[in-house]
From TrEMBL, chain A:
Keyword DNA-binding in annotation: yes
Entry-linked InterPro entries: CENP-T, CENP-T/H4_C, CENP-T_N, Histone-fold
One matching Pfam family: CENP-T_C
A biological process from GO: cell division
The protein, known as: Centromere protein T
Organism (species): Calidris pygmaea (Spoon-billed sandpiper)
Record carries keyword Cell membrane: no
SUPFAM superfamilies (UniProt xref): Histone-fold (SSF47113)
Localization: Chromosome, Centromere, Kinetochore; Nucleus
UniProtKB/TrEMBL annotation, chain B:
Superkingdom of source: Eukaryota
A Pfam family this chain is assigned to: CENP-S
Listed GO CC annotations: FANCM-MHF complex; kinetochore
PANTHER family, sorted: CENTROMERE PROTEIN S (PTHR22980:SF0), CORTISTATIN (PTHR22980)
Sorted UniProt keywords: Cell cycle, Cell division, Centromere, Chromosome, DNA damage, DNA repair, DNA-binding, Kinetochore, Mitosis, Nucleus
Any one GO molecular-function label of the UniProt entry: DNA binding
Subcellular location: Chromosome, Centromere, Kinetochore; Nucleus
Protein name from the UniProt record: Centromere protein S
Family according to the record: Belongs to the TAF9 family. CENP-S/MHF1 subfamily.
Gene Ontology terms: biological process: cell division; DNA repair; replication fork processing; resolution of meiotic recombination intermediates
InterPro entries with a match to the protein in the record: CENP-S/Mhf1, Histone-fold
Gene3D superfamilies, per database record: Histone, subunit A
Length: 671, 114
């Protein structure tokens, strides 16, 4: 209470001096030195707004040291609140100074004090909130905290003339403080000001001051935020302009999200998903907003169809044959297969398009999409065929390799699909997830096989491919017969579901090219085993099963359903890329970037595998990575790996990677 | 003084090597020019020879690194194949050549045995 009393005295000095308390001046004199000693926060902000406006002035007069402030504590408070802060802060600072100046010394003491000390003082002393006045003190305190020493002088000067020149003071203060006051939020200020406004008006005859002050402040600061509600807020964080959450809108938004997700997954290839996503969202948003059903009806098709058709050509053109294969050959969810196969089987889906009539919304969406891809893909296929047969075969082989698992599991798949159709909702969700995951991962999943494929594609050397092609064609004829039963089985299931149809298409497409994949896959398979075990296993299964000519669909299908191809999340790639490019990026660009990164990581892992094999090992070790980084040029004679670790990795990783010796013959991490 | 002399010697050797490379590159470019009916400027040949020389340095470092990675102290054809795997055509070519070499070695051994 001592402090309290002191504070009050300080704050109320002007008030008391004004007349509330005749002892004010006395106290001032007494407490002045005491205060100084205690570093009392004779903060202006603590002024209790009790006193009428005149009191500050009266208080001012008796002040010996620094007249400043005073003033109108109220106005000063108001000023401070109004925030131009400049005036208010300065006044506060001045108030502080004046308070401190109880002793006859002048400013210099304040100059010695740092803002930190002042802040401490403020924090130490509790704001005295008078029951009558709003908690302006808190505002003032915070504002004071922000004020700067240099402003004090100006504020003090302003204070002297405050009663008559508040606007000027404000302007001056604003002039000086504008730069430093940017942190101050005008809205907060104004809100506080508004709070005080009615009180100020009531209490002081200077009602005009605050308003004019505010006006001047606004003008000077260019604030256009209208004052907010006159709510009392103490030291609480402002809730800010938060709208009340509307439950309906929230739930509607959740549903929209779900629907959008489904739409995205079903409508677009994995490759195109990211690109079309925004388009779909934009187009579907409105419809979804009003539609609260669990499944969106075909109304969306038109919009999405248009967008998809527009995007498909672009996408197909940009895609390489490998991409096509990737898209067409998801190894997992059949629905994902539907999406991908649609993309790949452009040439053949036309006759199936009419069959794409399912209750599911996704199927409805698919049908508009399927006609589009077929046209595009056909062109692409032709183009590819013109380029180089081996290339196409390679891509086809990739498709086949991935598609073979599907083929094998067809008989089992039909059953699965039937079940799926019955559970549309679940399917959609799972398919969406699978499609997305697969789409993203499909390329990486093929790494084992794609290694050779990618390399071949990278350098379409006729000599290299001719040999492989020869091998492929040799086995091709033998394999085709084996594939026929698969196709038949698949076609039987066509009536039951789109997915089956798509798979059939995939099979037809991939059938001829299935064989080539095997040979191609054999070489990388030995290497691939080390890199991606899951993919290698799948490929091994797929390769062996065609040879048997009567694959065992169920086991491979069931197992493949759960395995996920590893792939880098496209959202992650987008974020990182956007961060480093610092510019808006087109959706197509993201796709290209994703493909590039995929290619890059494939190459990286194949290199790692080669290095590990070179050392006669089966596990990739740090030495292999060091060799890789040396090849990349990241690690040189001048830049050891350890320095790179220290520079770029977080501490946790560093602790794991770099052994550190501690006392007691202990090495962390223990080797 | 000895180090300086050694450095000088190395520099001299480097110069001679570079000259040899330059001459070889020039001959090759001449053949290509006659073959494709294109002209090669001197700067081009100089640039190519400089690039070749620097790449050979890089190759040497990589080969040594590969050999050490395999815990060997001799650079073998395996290391060379690892070096060339980036370029598939080159890899194929080198594999062929290595096979030829090994086969010829085998033949020589058989001859010696006989």
């Amino acid at each position: 209470m001592d402090n309290g009393a002191r504070l009050r005295a300080d704050g109320g000095r002007p008030v008391r001096a004004g007349g509330c308390d005749g002892q004010g001046p006395l106290r001032r004199g007494q407490e002045g030195p005491g205060r100084e000693r205690r570093g009392a926060a004779g903060l202006g902000p603590i002024l209790s707004p009790l006193c009428p406006g005149t009191s500050p002035r009266a208080a001012e007069a008796p002040r010996s040291g620094a007249p400043r402030r005073a003033g109108p504590r109220q106005p000063s408070e108001a000023v401070a609140l109004a925030g131009a802060g400049a005036g208010g802060v300065e006044q506060k600072g001045a108030g502080r100074t004046t308070l401190l100046k109880q002793r006859p010394t002048a400013l210099p003491d304040l100059d010695n004090e740092t803002p930190r000390v002042m802040l401490k003082r403020i924090i130490r002393t509790q704001p005295q909130v008078s029951p009558l006045a709003p908690r302006i003190s808190t505002h003032e305190e915070t504002e004071e905290a922000r004020s700067e020493l240099p402003s004090r002088r100006v504020s003090s000067m302003g204070e002297m003339q405050l009663p008559d020149l508040v606007p000027e003071n404000t302007s001056i203060a604003a002039f000086h403080m504008t730069k430093k006051r940017k942190k101050l939020s005008i809205s907060e200020f104004e809100r506080a000001a508004d709070k005080r406004l009615p009180q100020n008006q009531g209490k002081f005859g200077k009602s005009s001051l605050p308003s004019s002050f505010y006006r001047s402040l606004r003008i000077s600061l260019g604030s256009l935020i209208p004052p907010d509600t006159v709510e009392k807020r103490g030291l609480l964080r402002r809730p800010k302009y938060r709208k009340a959450i509307d439950m309906e809108a929230f739930e509607g938004g959740v549903e929209q999200n779900m629907l959008k997700r489904k739409a995205q997954d079903y409508l677009v290839d994995s490759q195109t998903a990211s690109g079309i996503q925004t388009a779909l969202l934009a187009s579907d948003a409105e419809i979804m907003l009003s539609n609260t059903e669990l499944f969106v009806q075909p109304q969306l098709d038109e919009q999405s169809q248009n967008k998809l058709s527009a995007l498909e050509p672009q996408l197909s053109d940009s895609k390489t044959s490998a991409q096509r294969s990737k898209i067409s050959a998801p190894e997992e969810a059949r629905l994902a297969g539907l999406v991908s196969s649609v993309g790949t089987n452009k040439g053949r889906t036309q006759r199936y398009s009419k069959d794409f009539i399912l209750d599911c919304e996704h199927i409805d969406r698919m049908s508009p999409v399927s006609p589009e891809p077929p046209a595009n893909q056909q062109e692409e296929k032709q183009r590819h065929s013109q380029q180089s047969n081996p290339m196409e075969q390679l891509s086809g082989s990739e498709e086949v390799v991935v598609g073979t698992p599907e083929h094998h599991a067809n008989s089992g798949y039909s059953e699965h699909l039937e079940k799926k159709l019955s559970k549309k909702a679940e399917l959609e969700i799972s398919a969406a997830e699978d499609a997305r995951a697969e789409a993203e991962m499909a390329p990486s999943a093929e790494e084992g096989i794609a290694e050779g494929g990618v390399e071949h594609q990278g350098s379409p050397d006729a000599g290299v491919e001719a040999g492989s092609v020869g091998r492929r064609s040799h086995a091709f004829s033998s394999e085709k017969s084996g594939l026929k039963p698969l196709e038949e089985a698949v076609e039987q299931a066509d009536d039951q579901a789109d997915e089956l149809e798509d798979q059939a298409i995939t099979i037809e497409l991939d059938g001829p090219e299935e064989e080539p994949t095997e040979d191609e896959a054999e070489d990388p398979e030995s290497e691939g085993k080390k890199t991606i075990a899951a993919a290698a296993e799948v490929f091994a299964v797929s390769q062996r099963s065609p040879l048997q000519a009567k694959p065992v669909p169920k086991s491979s299908g069931a197992s493949r359903r759960k395995t996920r191809e590893p792939a880098v999340a496209s959202s992650l790639i987008k974020k990182i890329f956007s961060h480093y490019v610092k510019m808006p990026v087109a959706r197509d660009a993201f796709k290209i970037v994703e493909k590039c990164s995929e290619r890059y990581f494939k190459q990286l892992s194949s290199d790692l595998e080669a290095y590990t094999t070179h050392a006669g090992r089966k596990t990739v070790e740090m030495a292999d990575l060091e060799v890789l980084m040396r090849r990349q040029g990241l690690v040189t004679d001048k830049m050891p790996l350890r320095v790179l670790i220290e520079r770029y990795l977080p501490l946790e990783y560093r602790k794991v990677l770099i052994p550190v010796a501690v006392s007691g013959n202990k090495v962390i991490p223990c080797k | 003084a000895m180090e300086a002399a050694g450095a000088e010697e190395r520099a001299l050797l480097t110069q001679r090597l570079k000259a040899a490379v330059h001459y070889t590159v020039g001959c090759l470019c001449q053949d290509v020019a006659e073959d494709k009916d294109v002209q090669f400027s001197k700067q081009t040949i100089a640039a190519i020879s400089e690039i070749t020389f620097r790449q050979c340095e890089t190759f040497a470092k990589d080969l040594e690194m590969f050999a050490r990675h395999a815990k060997r102290s001799t650079v073998t054809t395996e290391d060379v194949k690892l070096l060339a795997r980036r370029s598939t055509s080159l890899l194929k070519y080198i594999t062929q050549k290595s096979e030829e070499i090994t086969s010829s070695n085998m033949e020589q051994k058989e001859k010696k045995k006989k």
